[in-house]
Structures
1.
Amino acid sequence: MRCCQRLAFCVRTGSRDESNATQRIRAGSGSGAPCGRRQLFFDDHLIAESALDKTWHLPKIHPGSPVVQPETPMKMNGGRAPVAAPFSDGVFYDPRDRLFKLWYVAGWLDGIAYATSHDGLRWTRPKLDVEPGTNRVLARRDGHARDGVAVWLDHEVADPAQRFKMFGYFRRKPPAADGGELHTSPDGIHWSEPRLTGPCGNNTCFYYDPFRKLWVVSVRLGGDKDKHGRRRARREQRDFLGDASWGAKDIIGNPWLAADDLDPPDPQLGYKTQLYNFTAVAYESVMLGLFMIHRGPPNDVCKPQGISKISDVSLGFSRDGVNWARPDRRAFIGCSRKPGTWNRAYIHPAGGGCLVVGGQLYFHFAAWSDISPKLGDHLEAGGSTGLAVLRRDGFLSLDSAARGGTLTTPPVQFSGQHLFVNAEAKGGELAVEAIRESGTALPGFGVEQCGPIGSDGTRQPVQWQNAAHLSSLAGKPARFRFHLTRAKLYSLLGEPGAFRSQPRLRGGRRSRPHWPARHHRGRPRWQPFRIAMEEL
């Protein structure tokens, strides 16, 4: 494993509340920012002054989509409701055998299937021994039909038998009640006997918050007939299996998260929006949330017409895992709404959120066409797996036009040797100066001494003429001012660091996440956090 150094900053932060977060999805109160590495600019955490424009970006659907679609007898579901798509489920990169791994629903409410890939684009369905001749990973059980399932690859687990974790919601034949169950596995193929969970609704899922060292169960509440619609509560637990049998009193928030007036209804449908599903993943220095926004129609309208629900995935960001900022309410991954297309409706995010592959982010997702070979239009038919691709850290950029503009950070205490930026400056330039709190440049680190950056790259070093590194600034309070002309700044990076973030691909290897959580309440104070990254 590569040896890493640390690049630390101290930034003055204060407590936050709902009153100054008008674009935040409804959530509880909280404060504090966790440790991380690449720093995004979705809020003003690293912005004291700025004359730059914020631009939110959307991914592009990979032209090879759908990358997985129904082909085998199990997925074809007898021609009734073919599906090969993550109904949450999960997509991860496993460094042990250097494979991308996908779990998905095979045939509507039928099996949990498994596929592997060397690049995240071309997938192989291995023949396994769970049900010989198929890629099913959980044996059939009489009176059980799967609904929402979530899978997670646990990079920190001590017990190898629990390296893979699964939550499944099963519809059971009466008199047995529907409900959730947990499984663990050493290989993602052979799973333990189920352990029943506490109360939850279908489409419940879970994820890991490494900042707080907690498993978070995203509990579905409500439905079409509930006056408040679908929404989310949460269950937090440190022991994935040991804390499974929660009670109603252990569920936090009613709701914790819900759609609100800033989630616009579909203009052609007009139904009030609902939060159909929610999952999250640690990405660099923050938690990245994927909000599945349901825009209608309700089930009793969809079924007679044979059409799926219109749903899109939008994004949110959190620095404490509880409060979620959602500055851009557009569909990050949207359905086409066009009959005959593979992604007509019912977009679902995959568990695990996204994968860092070189200079890009891969978002695998599910989409439905509503096309059944036997039944014609059918709301449960035609589920496939798509892929959306975004520039690394490319959610938001801070932009300048020809007239130029600047961004100044709050006071920071710098300890490290190198500074990097993820920037697009081809045809323009970006330069940086280190300044005192008074605004004057520190000797040797003025904008005139900085070699201007005039290229496009996700990791570009900032260099000064007479300073090979920044160690002379160690322990001294300073601010950084970024000067941009016809350029875009996506993120601020540090040099290789010991604290690790969302597992990412590095020449076939993927690092393990590890951060200690840092929280504070009360008056603003100096709060250290770390910026770190690994070389590509």
2.
Amino acid sequence: MLRTRFPIAIIAASFCTCFVPTVQGQDIRPIHRWSLDNSLADTGTVGGLDLSLAGLLPGDEPFFQTDIPPISNNAPTNSLEFSGLTDSFARATNNGEPFTEDMTHTVVLWAKHDSFDELVAQRWISWGNCCNPPSNRRYFFGPGGGSKVDLGYISTTAADGPVPAIVQWDHWAAVRDLPNEKVFYYLNGVQVVEADVPAMIGDNFVIGPFDPAVGESDTNRELRVGNQFNDPTNAIEPLDGRLADLAIFDVALDAGQIQHVINNSAVSVPPPAIPTDRREWRDDVAGDWLTGGWFDPTGAAGTDAPNSNMSAPEFGAAITSPRTVFTDDPVTVNRIQFDNANSYAIAGNGTVTLETNPDGAVNPTVEVLSGSHQIQLPLALAGETTVTAADGSTLNLNNQLTLNGNDLNIDTTGTGAVNINHSVNSGGGTVTNSGTLGTAGSTTIGGDLASSGTLDFDIGGSLLDEFDSITVGGTATVSGSLHAELVNGFSLLGGESFTLLTAGTLIDNEISLIGPLVGTLNLNVIGNSLVLNGGSGAIPGDYNADEIVDTMDLNLVLFNWDSDSVPSEWSQHVPAGNVGIEELNGVLFNWNRTTPLSAVPEPHGLLMGLLGMSLLARRKKGAKTGHQTTNQ
């Protein structure tokens, strides 16, 4: 935004509130867990789903066995074996189900397959009843047709994952993130699938309690381990291999928590990891990031500068006037917080990198709680990053922003805003705006832009470098609103056109104009651009609204020169500031115009206007100074 551009120098903030990390709570326990090491008892925090073996033939060996030699890569040494030859599987003895509605959850387990038949599913866990009733209520996780791992609801499969290895223990996890409508698969702690899945798949998808009137009473939507759900079409489809340490959590576990399960067990997981290196700026002067006055607000003795992906620097209440914190070296952090009515500027010849913490559990953030602040250094992302600005606060990014293929999410509240005032090098990432995004002057975004919030533009003149604009190298998908207003005393003469956004591809999902220019200018999509223009309307330069631009309008300008108020006969195109050259040009360049869209005036019209201007200017000068004048 033009009005928020600052000089590259002094700025700082104050601390009313400290940076608030993720709450450190108790360990999270699964709602169901079956260790499958010589026990079929449900040891989760919600019980009632004990299992029993089914499908055994007379003389079968016990199905709890120990692998010899000991299993490597943290896999359990005790497991439950399933024989594809004997149709063995474990089933809930009470026809129960893990949860009663579509909800956020995570399933974790160890699996080892002895063989595959690509025509036969080898589900690790499932429940439901196919195919009666027609709504096909069912759930499954594990290899399906083609032996690819998938997660399914009703008759919809979320996404195909990899084919499990043969005769090898691997750890698998499926995360169902309901609020974000996402599904993730993890193999040995590494995310291998991310897929979009609607919050509800099918209007009738409600996993209800046992109902003997639906399907056969002994298999009605029962939980099964090592077997496909009850499916009379495909018959029994058992696993040929082993399973161990199966658990269901009622939260979406992150990568760090899943790794904890692998390294330990599914008995419990810690809360999500948070940055532990909190540092608060305490000098009420400008200072060097790496040698300045930091302290640990938690009371620990640490005073070293924040410079790692577990660091959370806080720029808050210590300062009483604008300050600059500078660095000529690269620094890396996970989170930054600003909270002061005074402004901080992060400046120098170094760089700032926002990086996901080591466990991959906490993505980078920049949080502005109050005040208007600047990052004047080049900023690089090493993880999906979210920037927030509270009501009344502003963050200005005044140097190159490099996404490195990561997304930048802008989420502001109220009048809070984020201004990108320099070029964006995406590398494949997307700038996603669900708040208010502005700019100062001309900004280029090298990748994609997705805006469902507000795009904010200031118009300080009709020349290209006098109004804000954004150029998007990739695809710009816009909805929400576009706010534009006149600044720096600029007033419209009529017929102006402002190209505010241009993209390689523009997808307009009904973006609308808001703010003081509604009714004065129109927002149009022209090719791959968003353009504000006047269209038809009042005649430019016709200040007294008599449908012609003539000496009457010129007199209004000259006799009110430099005035910040105008008489009542100045009825349209009222200037935003003092009467001056903009209003004079409005008359001269539209001399004798009688329609809003008439051509530029002929040279003789301009000459007449200039002559009139000269005479009336002399008369005005005399009147202003109080001296009587006579024509020469």
3.
Amino acid sequence: MAGTARVSAAGAYIEDGPSDGVWASAFGAYVEYQSADQRARSSALGAFVEQSATGAFASAFGLYVEMGTAAVGTVGQWGVLIDWDFDGTYDDETDRVIAADGHQALASFGRSIVAGKGIVSQANLVLRNNDGRYSALNESSPIYDAIQNGQGYHAPIIIKRMNSDLQWVNIFTGVVKIPRESSPTSFDISTVELDCRGAEEKVLTKRVSTSQSDFASWANLGGVPEGTILAQWFDDAGIPSNQLSIDTSQAHINWAWMDDESPIEAAWELAEAVAGRVYANPDGTIIYENNQAWLANPPSRHTVSQGTLTRQDFSALIPFYSDAELYRTVNVEITARQQTDADILWEPADIVVIPSSGTVTVWARVQQPIYRLDSINYTATTSGGEDITDDVSLSYTAYAQRVKLTFTNANALEAAELALLNITGQPSDGYDSDERSRESAAAFWAAAGTAGTATRLGDRTKVLRNPLIQTQGQAEFLSEYLGSWYEEPSLFFKAQGVVGDEGRRLGDRYTITDGSVMTSSRDAFITGIRWRWDHQGYWQDLELIDGAGIFPYMDGAGGTPDYFIIGTDTLGTASASPGRVFF
């Protein structure tokens, strides 16, 4: 066996070690003969390595170790890349990975996909650190300059896997939070844990305000599509357009603004107001899907089943009905706004003092967003009352609900006290809310065995309050759309221990069949994916919502949805089968 080298699917070399019959692994662990027949070997990581009939070795980590030049560029190969110093060049950390797992979802499992708050995707990795590469206090580490003093925070990371077409497919794209190191023990080597967050994290931690000009211009247009607003908000946050995918808009929003807010949280709120959803996919793209996205074709992955999951495909199937969003009545409030009379919008609580030859910045936050800014007024005097207004200059930036005022005092001898400082203009104010209500007529709410004369205990009511629900049309649509979802318990599935498929995505449609728990097959949409990669291989736990429960007519003639799809179908006689009115 002397002189033989082997390469694992993780890209790690295993070579002859210090004595005959011993191999030194690039993981820093020795692999030795375990039995007299020299077929089994035990590694210092505690995983057995067995020899196959072809001379390949199968590791308990689920990675094959081949004789010779081996499994680089083959199906199932993984890649873990991190840009520690933010220069656009990624370091390949794959060889050091001991285990990894992650989760992405549209909403908390057991709840619908329409919510005012999304879920940031995440991944967790454990890497070997026996040489101190990830030790922030180790000055000899090759990445010391990049990770010292917590500078590894938010380093970009990509986790990928090679598919059957020998193409890399991203499992996760996001950022690393500060690495957490563990020193070696008598049982374990030194490791580091990486807690990672998806592309949403980069936007979640930003704070952005909408410009006053955008706020007013959108209102002057009578409202703009939600897609236009989302694109501007993400642009304000510094997200380039090639990292966005924005679906066809379904509504016009008259008054929309952020005031020192997280753009992703504002986007979640806007998506809720039109029954859409915003999330980041494994490629790091922030996606907005409208309320008809899973009925549109393309992409066919929503309208055509991407495969059938049978008892042979999962270790366990858990179907269950959830009452987390079970409501007999849905009330949707309308928050209308209008321009009011011009007035003083802001005055400071105390006198603003600008030092001689100094500059002072004041943030003026107004109570209501500014439809029109008319003037910024002030008089500058010395402490003795001398007028030095001509010595003070002002520059400002106006946002929808705050104004940044920067005053500069050119007087080299006297401080300037600003008297009568105020901002005038025309605000946009909300007025008394209206609402639209839908009460379920479903038989579910009639108690069994009483001929419909009694009802189930409790009269559960959902009240949806969102400042971006501003028109009767929005409220009527949402009350009907959500009311049809919420009027009966929703059916969900959890398929555990499914062999991992790097190509699976949120929203993919799958057929589920298991004769032990169901009479006939059901089609469902993936709403969450939990994945893990360790010594047992690559596995996924899939969270799904029953398709017919949310879209009763998702399978019409010819296998296409029997709904009128905005952007696809045509009104009138131009379309032979335009489909049903979508709520």
4.
Amino acid sequence: MNGKISVTRVVVIGLDGVTFEVIDPLIAQGELPNLKRMMTNGSRAILQSVVPPYSPPAWISMLTGKNPGKHGIFHFLKRKGGSYDLEVASFRDVRENTLFSILAREGLGSGAMNIPMTYPPPDRVRGFFVSGIPVPPDPRSCASPPAIQEVIQAAGYEVDYDFRGFDPNREEEEDRWGDYQHLLDRLIEIERKRAEIFLNLARREELPLLFTVISLTDRVQHYFWRFTDPQHRGYSEEGNRRFGDAVRRAYVVADEILGQIVEACGDDVAYFVVSDHGFGPHYGDFHLNGWLVQNGFIKMKRTPRWTLKRGPLRHVLARLGAGFVASLLPGSIGARMVCYPGRKRHPDRNDVVWSKTKAFASMYGIRVNLKGREPGGIVEAGKAYQDLTREIAKALEGIVNPMNGKRLLTECIAKEEVFSGPHLDGSPDLFLDLAGISFLPTENWSIGETCILRKKCPFSGTHRIEGIFIAGGPPILRGKLMSPVRIMDILPSILYLFDIPIPRDIDGNVILEAMVEKRPVRLQASTSEEAGEGKSEKAYSEEEEDQITENLKGMGYI
């Protein structure tokens, strides 16, 4: 390595969903001493996430330094070739080299834990690698090399809370305080255990890169935000009394774990503390498919009618009055998907008449039923496509925010405005910013009221574009408040610290504003033509995919 600025070790701590809008008031109240110390002794900036600020493309953009149009990850799900169906995406679907593969090629090892969208782990690892969600409930292996799997299992490692059976979007008649308390306690317990295991692995060998993600902050803000926000329709004095400090507790635990990592790794290394996105209130939902039906963009078959349905065995038995039998089934058997006859009263995607449908909701956006791309596409590319997207965007301007009577749509964003690259066809064609992302588009097919305010839905917080970037250590300027940086800037900045040439096709830039010493950025040939993490074989069995889908539904991600 050449140049004074190069370092021998970089430690990245991901604080999922963390925002300065929570950090700064807590520090002013005397909380979060470790974050305060790192900001005082280092540099900070708002970190701009991807659009929309969704965890899978955000983390992978951080790991590749490239936008989703290049690396191919847009969601926890992906388009299933030759159909309108979706399937669960995995680390094998990443079509670019990641930070870990670039470092390995340079002969540098790394240790990683709990980064979303990294299952299955790479086959060959210089160090250790423990995958983050989505991971099957009973994975054959979420760690590499195999010896690490044995270590974490013996230590009681849990990938995440098992959210199967949760419905975060269902309005509850009464708040289930006991369930909220159990969830909060277990989330903290899981995070503390994960940190303990990560630190034990990190101490085994002094690896050049350590990268771990604390997910507690994301989960707690999703489920407990309304208890701190008087503007939310689900706020109550009783809820605030019980759980008004839940978000604070999550940040305090994350700060404690940050302090433990710094103590274990020392002061002579470079630290990056990053979040994949920020956070804010989730006030309501916009049932996008229902709106598209109402406005003539989707044509549906008639309902109700008899049809075959599919669901987990435990749910089918419960519907038949055999709930006691369902309770006796082992988890994997109860989660097995089975078919059964039923009266279909509510429409869904299987009722779409594709030959008469112009556009539909998909993966938090709108996808045009484009001829030559979709199996039953009817919209011609070019002028017809452009005219349709403009027509939809114009019609969306008439939607009214039920909270204040103002226009709900903040911005309608074409994919070409935010993405570029060979995998652009995997993306929705339009993204919607609804009231500053305080309302989310859903794929609900309800034909009635399409704009709904949330009250006692378990999910009450959601993502924002503005995350955090904090850097510390010898190569970082002290007390520097920087202009915003982008999530794709993290990878080239880490390579810069290691004095590794940066691939020319990287979308991010080195965060030179944070560096004590500046030197010319060295470039190398593009890596886009190489086979990145992507492999052709599927990562999940059909049963595992069903289980993961149910868990992601419980987490509110699909």
